Amino acid sequence: MNIISVLTTDHRNVDDLFKRFEKAAADDTAELGRVRDLILEQLAIHAEIEEQTLYPALREAATDDVLEALEEHHAVKAILAELEKMPPNAERFRAKMQVVIENVRHHVEEEEGDGGLFEVARQTLKTPELEAMAEQAEQLRKVGPTRPHPFASDQPPFNVILGLPMAVLDRAVSTARKVVEKTLLRKAS
Ligand SMILES: [Fe+2]
Ligand SMILES: [Fe+2]
What we know:
The chain contains eight helices and no strands. The chain has helices spanning 3-23, 29-52, 54-58, 63-85, 93-112, 117-124, 127-143, 158-188. 30% of the residues are buried.
């Protein structure tokens, strides 16, 4: 397993969630909220993996592309942070998520496309390095952030140093949210 296939699989998984969101009925607020939570979680951890593994490794070889990718992550995290607080029945909820979906699809095309960061990685990094990053990704999946943090550091060393305590808090918040949702659903049924 190497980091490119790990990240590409993430891209497909998150796009499946996007399709599920787009298919949900406008008045199915339970489903819209559930899918929103899954998108928040998956994009948070995916961005963290890229920001701690591939992006720093390509910082020299593709400086402008890495800087643009970091800005695109930042913009998406900022909208996701708004969506996290917004009730799914709010007038602009679906429109806001649609902007996230369009931005992420564009970003993914740039990462995977001709001359994109994944191609630069294949050309400039060695196989053991790409495989070590895949292992690092699996570790980060267990301890990384699960919520958007648009104003946290996204580059080493501060994302590594400050990321861990933030991720612990995230997991507490995510668990609490799931408990509240389950209780509400039980009450509703
Ligand atoms: Fe990215
Ligand atoms: Fe990505």
